[in-house]
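Reply to dn_fold:

You asked what the input looked like. This is it:
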Amino acid sequence: MYFQRLRDLREDMDMNQTQIAEILNIKQTVYSRYERGFQTIPVEHLITLADFYGVSTDYILGRTNIKAVNR
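and this is what came back:
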């Protein structure tokens, strides 16, 4: 599965893949595979990114178009 939203969210924050990979404590090449859909993103990384970007995991996964998280 290709995660265009991962790339869009990252670019909206003017961050590069290396910076996001550091947040996840992984290599940039691994993060790049997540964005391109060549590697499945682990749930813990998905949750970390959703929290970081302030969106739901469903938004990242393309299950909803609503960005905001109800808190």
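The radius of gyration is 11 Å.
Hope that clears it up.
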